[in-house]
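Sample 3 of the quickstart, ligand zinc ion:
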Amino acid sequence: MEKTITAIVGTMFSGKSTELIRLLKRLEISGYKIQLYKPSIDDRYSKQNVSSHDKLEFPATIVNSYEDLEKKYNPDIKVLGIDEIQFLESDVLSLLKKHVNNNGIVVVSGLLKDFKDDYFKFKDGKKDMSELIRIADDVVYLKAICTYKENGEICGREATRVQRFIDGKVAPKDSPLVLVGSTESYAPRCRDHYHFY
Ligand SMILES: [Zn+2]
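Result:
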């Protein structure tokens, strides 16, 4: 396996971290050395590992920004992995290209779209996740399962979007990303049960 950028993208609850760990473990078993980075914003379950909801783990280096990642990055390690890449600045895309052009292997995962169904923007707001798709050789597109309930039954169709709720109601398009004094939640939705903005 040479010179490949694999992008694992999808909605929340679609198993992106599980897939990232699976691909990295497969490469590790083949004897490749791996460096995995994770932005510090995601502190779910563990600070030193990338964890999936089903508790699979892989050792990761936590980074605060792309600048931090660039300092810790080792060009001699064959496999470069990044979890939740959308939480880094868009300059990270140049590093992916540099690594792969240097005969490296890149495997990254991230949220494709936000709750408004727009492509998720990188931390600096300069580019969005469509740019990652553009530079990738292989795109793994993951879906969740719609949890909308009707007459006590779960919809169960494939969900390609996530709905945001504030205090139990569908969040308005202009709702602030950080909320004070309200409870917010997210749920996977199929096309029929997603409120389009
Ligand atoms: Zn549904």
